Amino acid sequence: MSFEGKIKAGDFKKVIDSVSRLVDEIKLQITEDGVQTKASDPANVAMVILSINKEGFDSFSLDEEMEIGLDLDKLEDILGVASSSDFVELSTEDGSTLDVEVGGFEYNLSLLDPSTIQEQPEIPNLDLPSKIIMEGKTLKKAVKAAEKVSDYLILVTQGKKLTIKAEGDSDSVKLDLEEEDLIEIESEKDSRSLFSLDYLSDMSKSLSSADRVEMELGSDYPIKLKFPIVNEEGKVEYMLAPRIESE
Amino acid sequence: MSFEGKIKAGDFKKVIDSVSRLVDEIKLQITEDGVQTKASDPANVAMVILSINKEGFDSFSLDEEMEIGLDLDKLEDILGVASSSDFVELSTEDGSTLDVEVGGFEYNLSLLDPSTIQEQPEIPNLDLPSKIIMEGKTLKKAVKAAEKVSDYLILVTQGKKLTIKAEGDSDSVKLDLEEEDLIEIESEKDSRSLFSLDYLSDMSKSLSSADRVEMELGSDYPIKLKFPIVNEEGKVEYMLAPRIESE
Amino acid sequence: MSFEGKIKAGDFKKVIDSVSRLVDEIKLQITEDGVQTKASDPANVAMVILSINKEGFDSFSLDEEMEIGLDLDKLEDILGVASSSDFVELSTEDGSTLDVEVGGFEYNLSLLDPSTIQEQPEIPNLDLPSKIIMEGKTLKKAVKAAEKVSDYLILVTQGKKLTIKAEGDSDSVKLDLEEEDLIEIESEKDSRSLFSLDYLSDMSKSLSSADRVEMELGSDYPIKLKFPIVNEEGKVEYMLAPRIESE
């Protein structure tokens, strides 16, 4: 049982970053297709599903499927020293330690026992009525504006219009995005859901550099936010449970 | 009773910033000439007088004079998201809420009841003997240097020379500015006054980008610092009470 | 007894910085050759030896050798306001106060009584078997990588190879530097010593911009790190006691 993979440091940083915003430790599945993980935050409010195709790696070799346990903080800390254009070489013989070679340095990290890490969540199968594609930076800006007045965000679709708003005790803010402000909007039914800005803020930092973020929305239903990483050879999907509006 | 005004975000940020260094809440008078406010800090040591001509606005319409109560922190917070070249559109129908449109976002802020805000101070009518015009960055640099050794600043004019100095328990610093280092200096009588660096530090941050700051000085008298904003269509005037030198 | 010296602010900042990483107060000897100091940190684990030739100064005049007591924090604080290309003019009449003129400002700082400052350390006369010359930034990068996994650094020479490594409880990191990765390596005998990363981290910040750092190394012996400053007209030498490896 052994794995060797080589990937650009800049890409790998973004991968780790997108997951570490929700959890500290993950089980990573390494298969002949690439690497995958699923995780939910400790409060079970948000989930992340990550996959990177084998083609996203500069080189990738595996003799047997395996699951390894990763401490994401440790990995982020190490990658912090690398420049984005460096290559990271990852290898493990037996799943107990991970060799990370980057910028001339050879790190040897002890891996976590996957059985000690929280079970991977079941992903609910949701068919949401409103599908919007927008730039990541638009969503990030809206989240930042909303944080000035409230701690939750309201997302509303009406026909071909997406309204992002927040209502605090005394102040409110609203952003109307018409079809021409978005890359795409399809809505079978008007939607309206509320979400915690704490989570959206973390997620939006990670997706802010994505050219295309797919958002799926319903009424009092979870939101899905999907965006490509590693030159479209990987993808991150966030799901976030709604906050139910008190009357 | 309604007001609508449009102004460059960069200009409006500087306006708010120059006042918020002394107070958190202000009464703003909106008249057919433009907007004005006066405020003193809670300790009554410093005052700020602000005015922006109607011409400083990209558009300005008002049907009746009004006074509104502004929470400056809240406004600064919101403007922080805007880029300097954005335009801010301000409007209020009845003085109870303020609509702020900037960068596509529409904020609705509740205004303060002006009667709950500290009375505007009487501005003393002072005719000070020394009048100096200098670059804002010169004053800011001097304040920064003085902070290294003391918590008050001494300003002295002798003929056509301005000396800025500070004396700590063990160390001191001095900057001599001759006529050629200043834009202008006129002094009917030599002056010498001491001022708290706490206040001057805040003020100097605000005036540091001004090409021309007018300083008026006497002996154990308040200092006046006046500088233009909003492309010369507005002005800020600070007054700061002296600290009396202990013998 | 009087001294006057003029030196580039950027150079003088680096000089002060290299010493202030270990101690807050120093005795500085001013002789006809230039200025010198030696100091050890409060725990007596590290030493710094500093000298600047008279030629490192833009101008230098002295009528009698003297020793002055400097508060380095205070000096760093003042130099922080200067731009690197400014000149600093230092002068003292009697060793009780120091005049520092920089950027138009004239500071007058009280000097410390040298007799109140810790005695200067004896410098042990060490002839260490491994001598390596490398770029400062290589060492800094290695120290930063090591800090991710441990609180001490292991330096090993084997023939013409220098290995820098660190071993934490669960993780480790290693950097092999062959002859071609270094400027020079001469080793009479293989060496291996451990050093505290706390100290190396401070030192490496100071030497990171040096093109050539001379390292001398033995087995369980102190390390010497020597690098030029002030356009080769001065030098800094650090010595750091080893940590003895527990079996």
UniProtKB/TrEMBL annotation, chains A, B, C:
Domain Proliferating cell nuclear antigen PCNA N-terminal: from-to ranges: 5-96
Domain annotation Proliferating cell nuclear antigen PCNA C-terminal: ranges: 123-242
Record key words, sorted: DNA replication, DNA-binding
One Pfam family this sequence matches: PCNA_C
InterPro entries assigned: DNA_clamp_sf, Pr_cel_nuc_antig, Pr_cel_nuc_antig_C, Pr_cel_nuc_antig_N
Single annotated GO MF: DNA polymerase processivity factor activity
Keyword Nucleotide-binding: no
One example of a Gene Ontology biological process annotation: leading strand elongation
Subunit details: Homotrimer. The subunits circularize to form a toroid; DNA passes through its center. Replication factor C (RFC) is required to load the toroid on the DNA.
Family statement: Belongs to the PCNA family.
Described purpose of this protein according to its UniProt entry: Sliding clamp subunit. Responsible for tethering the catalytic subunit of DNA polymerase to DNA during high-speed replication. Sliding clamp subunit that acts as a moving platform for DNA processing. Responsible for tethering the catalytic subunit of DNA polymerase and other proteins to DNA during high-speed replication.
HAMAP family xrefs: DNApol_clamp_arch
Name under which the protein is recorded: DNA polymerase sliding clamp
Species whose genome carries this gene: Methanohalarchaeum thermophilum
